[in-house]
Design goal:
Strand content: 15-25%
Shape: globular
Strand order of the largest sheet: 8-7-17-18-19-15-21
Radius of gyration: 23 Å
Helix content: 25-40%
Number of strands: 22
Distance between the termini: 14 Å
C-alpha cells in the first residue's frame, strides 16, 4: 500500500486554515497527511475578537466584502451561515479641514457615478469638480499590459482634488499604503479594464452599476456591502479549527529554515528538530517567508516588499458621553489633514450587535505608509491623541470606560508597481526549481479575507490534483 503524502502548512491565519480545511475534507480518500504549524499560541492571524461586558470588539479586520463569496460559502460549510450579519448601511463621511463632509452618493471607491450629488458636494471646489469631469474626454492613461501607480492613474483621470480628498483616504483604509506607489494592476485591475473598454472610469462604472441591484433584507432595506459574524470573526476561526484533526494542528511552533533535499522538503524548527514533507504550503508574511527560504535567491522580492505598520484603537463609552450629531457609519480622513487618526468607525451604529444598549463603541485607526511613529508610543499616548482628534469632531465628555489598542507591525503588504510581474517570476522560479512548494497569502494576490481563503484553497487543490 502506497504511503500517505505528507503536507506541511506553515502559518495558521486565514490562508493556512482554508488550506488545512480543504485537505482535511479530502484526506480520507486522497491518501495525504497534513500538519499545520503556527508560531503563535493561537490560530487566526490578524483575526482577533474580544468579547467583554456585551461588547464584541475586533482588533483586526471587522468584516469582509459580501460580493466575494468564498468566505460566506466556507461559513456555510462549517455551520456558521446562520450567524452572518450585514452591516447597517448609512452615510459615510470625509474629514477635511476640521469638517465632516458627506460622501457623495453614488461614489464607487471615490469615483463619481451620479453627477448631481457630485456637483452639489462642498468637498471640492468648482475647479476640482470640473477637472474630474475631464475623465469623459481624457484618452487612456495605461496600456493593457502596463502597470502604473494608483495615484498616477487616478490623478490623470480625475485630478488632484478628488484623489487627495476622497479616493486616497478610502483606498488607504484598505491598503494603508501610499497611493503614488501602489500598483494599479495588483490592486484594482478592474479600473484598468473599465478605462480600456469604456474610455472613461465614470462611464464604465455607470454602465456596470446599471446592471447591478443591491440586495435588500426582508423589510426592504438595502443590505450593507460587508458581512461579519454575530459572535465576531474569531468565531469563524474557531469553527474551522474545530473541524480539523487536532493531532495535525501545532501552535507555538516556529520554523527557522526550509530546504529541498531531492524529493522532500526539510523543515528545521527553532529547537533543532527536523521534519520532512513531500509538499509545503507557506502562508506567512513575505519577510518571514523569505527568511525561512533564505537558501534560495528566488525570494528577493519578498525580502524587499514593504509592509505598513498601523494600530487600531477601540474606545467604549456610555452613550450619554458621546454626542454625535452625525447619522452614519463613520469617516475617513483626508491625507493633508493635521489629524493623527486616519479613520473612525462608529461601530455601535455600523454593527449594532457589537455594542450593548446604552453604550457607544468607537474604533479609530492610526499610522499610515511612511508615517507610523505614533504606533510605537504607549497605549496611553495613543489613546490621548485619538481622544484629542475625536473631540474636535464630536462632543465627548469624560474618559472612555475602556480602551483596546492593537498594534499591527509590518502587517499590510504594499503591492508596489510591478508587483504582479515579480510574483509571476517568483512562481515561475518555484515551479522550475522547487516543485511541491506553494506560496500563498496576503503578500501575493489580495489582502482581504476572501482573497486569502481563495489562495489557501487553490494551494490545497494543486496538491490534491498532483496526488
Amino acid at each position: 500500500m502506497e504511503s500517505k503524502k505528507r503536507v506541511a502548512i506553515i502559518g495558521g491565519g486565514m490562508t493556512g486554515l482554508a488550506a488545512a480545511f480543504k485537505l482535511e475534507q479530502a484526506k480520507s480518500h486522497e491518501g495525504i497527511h497534513y500538519d499545520l504549524f503556527e508560531k503563535n499560541d493561537r490560530l487566526g492571524g490578524k483575526i482577533q475578537t474580544i468579547v467583554r461586558d456585551g461588547f464584541v470588539i475586533e482588533r483586526g479586520p471587522d468584516s469582509f466584502l459580501a460580493r466575494k463569496q468564498s468566505m460566506s460559502r466556507l461559513a456555510k460549510e462549517v455551520g456558521l451561515e446562520g450567524e452572518l450579519l450585514s452591516n447597517d448601511t448609512g452615510q459615510a463621511y470625509i474629514l477635511k479641514d476640521d469638517t465632516l463632509y458627506p460622501m457623495p452618493s453614488g461614489a464607487v471607491m471615490g469615483i463619481p457615478t451620479e453627477l448631481k450629488p457630485f456637483a452639489t458636494t462642498k468637498l471640492f471646489t468648482p475647479l476640482g469638480k470640473l477637472r474630474a469631469l475631464g475623465d469623459f474626454f481624457i484618452p487612456p492613461v495605461v496600456g493593457r499590459d502596463e502597470d502604473v501607480s494608483l495615484g498616477h492613474f487616478f490623478r490623470a483621470r480625475l485630478g488632484n482634488q478628488v484623489v487627495d480628498d476622497l479616493i486616497e483616504p478610502l483606498l488607504s483604509g484598505i491598503y494603508a499604503g501610499d497611493l503614488d506607489k501602489l500598483s494599479l494592476k495588483a490592486t484594482f485591475p478592474h479600473f484598468q479594464q473599465l478605462e480600456s473598454k469604456h474610455g472613461s472610469l465614470i462611464k464604465g462604472l455607470q454602465a456596470t452599476r446599471g446592471k447591478q441591484t443591491q440586495a435588500k433584507d426582508s423589510a426592504g432595506k438595502k443590505k450593507g456591502m460587508f458581512l461579519t459574524f454575530e459572535r465576531g470573526l474569531e468565531s469563524f476561526v474557531e469553527a474551522i479549527a474545530a473541524r480539523l484533526d487536532q493531532n495535525s494542528v501545532h501552535t507555538g511552533v516556529q520554523i527557522d529554515n526550509i530546504q529541498k533535499d531531492a524529493d522532500v522538503f526539510r523543515l528545521t524548527f527553532d529547537d533543532g528538530t527536523i521534519k520532512e514533507y513531500d509538499q509545503v504550503i507557506i502562508t506567512t508574511p513575505p519577510h518571514v517567508t523569505a527568511k525561512m527560504l533564505g537558501a534560495y535567491d528566488y525570494f528577493k522580492y519578498f525580502k524587499e516588499l514593504e509592509s505598513s505598520t498601523v494600530a487600531t484603537v477601540a474606545l467604549g463609552f456610555h452613550k450619554s458621553a458621546v454626542d454625535n450629531p452625525y447619522e452614519g457609519t463613520g469617516f475617513v480622513v483626508s491625507k493633508k489633514s493635521s489629524f493623527d487618526i486616519t479613520a473612525c468607525t462608529w461601530t455601535h451604529k455600523k454593527w449594532r450587535h457589537s455594542t450593548p444598549e446604552g453604550h457607544a463603541l468607537l474604533r479609530s485607526y492610526v499610522g499610515r505608509a511612511g508615517d507610523s511613529d505614533i504606533v510605537y508610543k504607549t497605549d496611553e499616548e495613543i489613546v490621548a491623541a485619538v481622544m484629542k482628534d475625536l473631540k474636535q469632531i464630536m462632543d465627548i465628555t469624560g474618559e472612555p470606560l475602556f480602551y483596546e489598542v492593537t498594534r499591527w507591525k509590518q502587517s499590510m503588504p504594499q503591492y508596489a508597481v510591478g508587483h504582479t510581474y515579480k510574483i509571476a517570476k517568483m512562481r515561475e522560479d518555484i515551479a522550475r526549481h522547487l516543485p511541491g512548494l506553494h506560496i500563498a497569502g496576503a503578500g501575493l494576490d489580495g489582502v482581504g479575507l476572501p482573497d486569502c481563503i481563495d489562495q489557501g484553497e487553490r494551494a490545497a487543490e494543486r496538491i490534491l490534483q498532483s496526488i
